[in-house]
Design goal:
Elements (H helix, E strand, L loop, with lengths): L10 E5 L5 H7 L4 E7 L2 H11 L3 E3 L18 E4 L21 H13 L3 E7 L9 H12 L4 E9 L10 E9 L24 H4 L17 H8 L59 H7 L12 H10 L3 H16 L8 H8 L3 H10 L3
Helix pairs in contact: 1-9
């Protein structure tokens, strides 16, 4: 993939970076990640292999962005803070409250660096975690960071933005109030809500067998191969006849899912036991990691480091780079100065008074 050439490359500090999917989407639009962090050793090696030695392997809870002079100033903070936090019932709002572990560190980086913008990525479940309290608290916390951020969350299905995979994720975009930049989330480009057809799994996998890296076939039992031969294109375990000796009662339906070549793949996941790999069609076998990377819109020159299981985890945890490129492009004028400033105070006050549901509706209605 060709990277855009820019007069000015906005500088990014990236945390919870993983192997670099979110960074790559921005990188391809001309952004420059100058400092990154993750504590998954092999993901860090994969990130470093593509972006160079800007990533620091270590525990984010041991890093203080207020006092650590090695962390440079930046135009933007990026990251997908983990979602495990939200089972913790938080005590009080604001950055002084005790926050479910890791979200707090993302907010502190924003508070310490005061970037013009931040983009935080999370799973769809964030919108309902703790009965809706988690997202409500997160939005309030982000808004309260001085001098104030206009915070716009939106649930994306990345298939609608050119990724050959149905994958729903929340992107929270925050704009510093004094910039006067009115960010609006971009409308879908692909599928029934866009102007172009979906990119299909079949299109994504064309020529993939020629790629030399991360493309090992996974050994499976003969029984599994026979089971897959009973499942049609786009089908899953429930397609095996109930009276067949290979049918197992009580097996959940999303296992042994085979690709449907004329539509995007189902969501690629990071880990799990038998039946969760995602399965090829017409060949009766699990997808290789390179095939999974293609379905996540990674370019073939992005080489993942580690064992097959470890690489599977990195790919399944990643943000598909193609899915965030339009957001990155939409934000560029903020950093080049190529926009007409507006007074964001009114927008800030209006959104602050909204419920989460009202805010999500408002953000969706203004998309263009």
């Amino acid at each position: 993939m060709e990277r855009k050439k820019m007069k000015y490359s906005p500088k990014v500090v990236s945390i919870f970076s993983g192997c670099g999917g979110l960074d790559l989407g921005f990188h391809l639009e001309g952004y420059d990640t100058i400092w990154a962090n993750d504590f998954a050793e092999w993901a860090v090696k994969s990130f470093e292999g593509y972006f160079g030695k800007v990533i620091h392997y270590g525990d984010i809870t041991q890093i203080n962005p207020y006092t650590d002079k090695s962390i440079p100033d930046c135009d933007m903070v990026l990251g997908g803070f983990p979602c495990q936090d939200f089972s913790i019932i938080w005590k009080q709002p604001g950055l002084n409250g005790t926050r479910g572990g890791l979200f707090r560190h993302f907010a502190e980086f924003v508070d310490a660096k005061k970037p013009k913008a931040f983009v935080a990525e999370n799973v769809k479940g964030l919108l309902t975690a703790n009965g809706g309290k988690a997202i409500e608290t997160i939005l309030k916390d982000f808004e309260s960071i001085a001098p104030g951020y206009v915070v716009k969350p939106h649930l994306y299905n990345f298939a609608e933005y050119g990724v050959p995979q149905f994958r729903e994720r929340v992107l929270i975009v925050g704009i510093r109030i004094d910039t006067g930049f009115n960010f609006v989330h971009p409308l879908p480009t692909h599928g029934p809500n866009g102007k172009k057809p979906y990119v299909t799994a079949g299109q994504a996998l064309q020529g993939v067998e020629e790629v030399p890296t991360n493309n090992e076939k996974i050994n499976i039992k003969e029984k599994t191969r026979q089971m897959l031969e009973l499942i049609p294109e786009g089908g899953n375990f429930t397609d095996i006849p109930k009276d067949h000796p290979l049918y197992v009662k009580g097996m959940i339906s999303h296992v042994y899912r085979r690709l449907k070549l004329d539509e995007p793949a189902k969501t690629i996941i990071a880990a799990g036991g038998g039946g969760t790999w995602g399965y090829h069609y017409p060949e009766p076998r699990p997808l290789t990691n390179r095939e999974r990377a293609r379905l996540q819109s990674f370019p073939d020159d992005f080489v993942f480091q580690g064992s097959v299981t470890e690489v599977r985890r990195q790919i399944g945890n990643a943000v598909p780079p193609e899915g965030v490129r339009l957001v990155a492009r939409r934000l560029l004028p903020l950093f080049t100065g190529d926009f007409t400033p507006v007074d964001l105070r009114e927008e800030y006050d209006k959104m602050k008074a909204m419920t989460v549901k009202e805010r999500l509706s408002y953000v969706t209605e203004e998309m263009n």
